[in-house]
Structure formats: structure tokens, C-alpha cells
Design goal:
The chain is mainly β. The protein has one domain. The chain is built from one helix and four strands. A four-stranded antiparallel β-sheet has the order 1-2-3-4.
Length: 57
């Protein structure tokens, strides 16, 4: 998860204060979608799963 977040290819608004990041796993396959929200003054990963069509460009 951290690798996909740190090396994200792009990001977009996911609604409800969540930013969705799309990035590779360490092996590069598959791409992951990572949902990040700011809570308590820090970024928190609240969602992670293989990339769905909803978040492809």
C-alpha cells in the first residue's frame, strides 16, 4: 500500500474528503487504488484494493 501511495501515477477526488491515489505494487502488477483521508492532522490510508474501472483515466 505505501509503495502505491508514494509512487502514485495520479490522484483524484474520491468524495467525502477522500483522495484516491492510483499506483503500482512493488512488482508493478496490479495497480492499486488507495484512499487517503486527513484525520487528526495526518494522512491516513482508509482504503486499498486492486484498481477498478471507476478510477482508471
Amino acid at each position: 500500500m505505501l509503495h502505491a501511495y508514494e509512487f502514485a501515477l495520479y490522484h483524484m477526488d474520491g468524495g467525502d474528503g477522500v483522495t484516491m491515489y492510483v499506483g503500482p505494487t512493488r512488482s508493478g502488477d496490479p495497480l492499486l487504488e488507495i484512499g487517503v483521508a486527513t484525520r487528526w492532522g495526518m494522512r491516513v490510508i482508509i482504503h486499498a484494493m486492486p484498481l477498478r474501472n471507476r478510477y482508471t483515466r
